[in-house]
Structures are given as C-alpha cells and as structure tokens.
Amino acid sequence: METPRKLDIDTLVRDVHEDWRNFVAAEVNDHVLRVSVLRRDFHWHVHTKSDEVFYVVQGTLCVDFEDLTEELRPGQMIMVPKGVRHRTRGAQAEGGTVALCFEAADNDVLGDDPALGAAASAP
User: Fold this and answer.
1) What integer pLDDT is reported at residue 110 of this predicted model?
2) Mean pLDDT of 29-50
3) Strand order in the sheet with 120-121
4) How far is CA 30 from CA 25, 26, 33, 107, 117, in A?
C-alpha cells in the first residue's frame, strides 16, 4: 500500500518559467492529474479516448470551442467531452495561468500542431 502524500501546487509551479508546461502531479487509478502552466495559447485539438476536466487554480483560462469561448477564473472548472475540438489559452499577464487537468492516463491529442503528427500522447 502506498503512503498518502500531500501536494502543494504553489511549490510544484514555483520554478516553472516556460510559457507552457504540462506535467503529471498524481496518478489516480487509470487517470492522471496534470498541472498545467500556461502563458500562451495551446493549439486546437481533440481527444478521442477520454473526457478531460480543467480546474483553474490561478489566473484566467479561456477554453475555446468551435462556437463558444468559456472564460474560467480560480475555483471554476469545465468538463470537455471526448471528441470535442477545443484549445486552451492562458493569461499572458497576471503571472500566467495554473490549472489542474484530470483525464485518462492514455488520453490522446489529435490536433493542429505539426509537431504532434497525426496522433500523439499528451505531453
């Protein structure tokens, strides 16, 4: 049996200086909790294997859909169903955006970023 461990999001992101960084903070059964630090836009993409949930910790997170943009502030969250094309945009001011993302560990990313090719695992 694993020992419970406390995570401090502020400590995890303190030394992140890139304009985009996404990393696994915890594994929960067959899902992961990712911490995402955004100071720029992420590309348009879709996930075919799993829904994903974003919860904003700091800053503002805009989630663009084909016909709608949702703006989230700290304490707000949104569930993006699998198969729905979207992109996230972080705050370039305010020190950036910090959000938690909960999704299946094997979730895929199919999108407009040429570096991803036809399909790639989430970074």
Assistant:
1) 79
2) 91
3) 68-72, 61-65, 86-90, 45-46, 108-111, 120-121
4) 14, 11, 10, 10, 25
pTM for this predicted structure:
0.85
Domains of the chain: 16-111 (2.60.120.10)
Q: What is the pLDDT of residues 62-84, one digit of tens each?
A: 999 999 999 999 999 999 999 99
Does the pLDDT of residue 42 top 70, yes or no? yes
**Tokens coding 98:** 């910090």
Is the distance from CB of 71 to CB of 60 less than 8 angstroms?
yes
User: What is the distance in angstroms between the CA of the first residue and the CA of the last residue of the chain?
Assistant: 28
- Joined tokens for residue 97: 């955006």
d(CA 88, CA 58): 14
Query: Looking at the chain, how many residues does it have?
Result: 123
